Amino acid sequence: MRKIVFSVAIALLFACDSKDPQFCSCMLAGEELNDFSSKLFQQEMTKDKAAKLMELKQAKKKACADYQTMDGQEMLKRKAACNEKNKN
Fold first, then answer.
1. What is the reported pTM?
2. d(Cα 79, Cα 24) in Å, to the nearest integer?
3. Residue 67 CB: number of other CB atoms within 10 A?
């Protein structure tokens, strides 16, 4: 019985500590899109900027495809793990 409890505790520890590099890529893609979009409010739109905006939207959509239905609390945990990873 102790072995089972210990095994489950170890598994949970590793599961909670794991960092998801794909999720971190999703976050980065979202930040790039947001930064570029916010700059567009202060500039004139050109064909090149419109193409860049579409490129960033597609990159975010691809990077975040696996996370579209993720619960908000889980996203916050993964975001915190990504932020912690970036600090180190």
1. 0.71
2. 7
3. 15
